[in-house]
Amino acid sequence: MAKNLKITLHHGLVNRKPNQRATAQTLGLRKIGQTVVREDTPAVRGMVNVLRHLVTVEEAD
After folding, report:
1. Given this model, what pLDDT does residue 61 score?
2. What is the Cβ-side half-sphere exposure of residue 11, based on CA atoms within 13 angstroms?
3. What are the two backbone dihedrals, phi and then psi, of residue 29, each rounded to the nearest 5 degrees?
4. From CA 33, how far away is CA 3, in angstroms rounded?
5. How many CA atoms, within 13 angstroms, populate the side-chain half-sphere of residue 28?
6. How far apart are CA 40 and CA 43, in angstroms?
7. Residue-range definition of the domain harbouring residue 20
8. Which of 61, 54, 21 has its CA nearest to residue 39?
9. How many domains, in total, are found in the chain?
10. Smallest Cα–Cα separation from 38: which of 30, 49, 52, 48?
């Protein structure tokens, strides 16, 4: 069974680098407090790593 990650945006994207804004949009994060659930893959882990100071991540099933 594949694991999932629950990703929550806690800080805004104003005055962030363009690659950080694009990564957040790719994950589906637009507003502060918004939460998305994504499959735990190396690609998603890499995107979370780019935004590690803006998001919190939890394991979800």
Report:
1. 81
2. 11
3. -100, 125
4. 22
5. 10
6. 8
7. 4-60
8. 61
9. 1
10. 48
The tokens describing 17, both together, are 């680098």
User: Vertex 38, ends 37 and 39: CA angle to 5°?
Assistant: 135
The pTM of the full predicted model, rounded to 2 decimals, is: 0.92
For the sheet containing 55-60, what is the strand order? 35-39, 4-9, 55-60
**Domain with 26 in it: what CATH number?**
3.30.1390.20
* 1-53 pLDDT, tens digit each: 569 999 999 999 999 999 999 999 999 999 999 999 999 999 999 999 999 99
Q: Alpha-carbon distance 29 to 22, whole Å?
A: 10
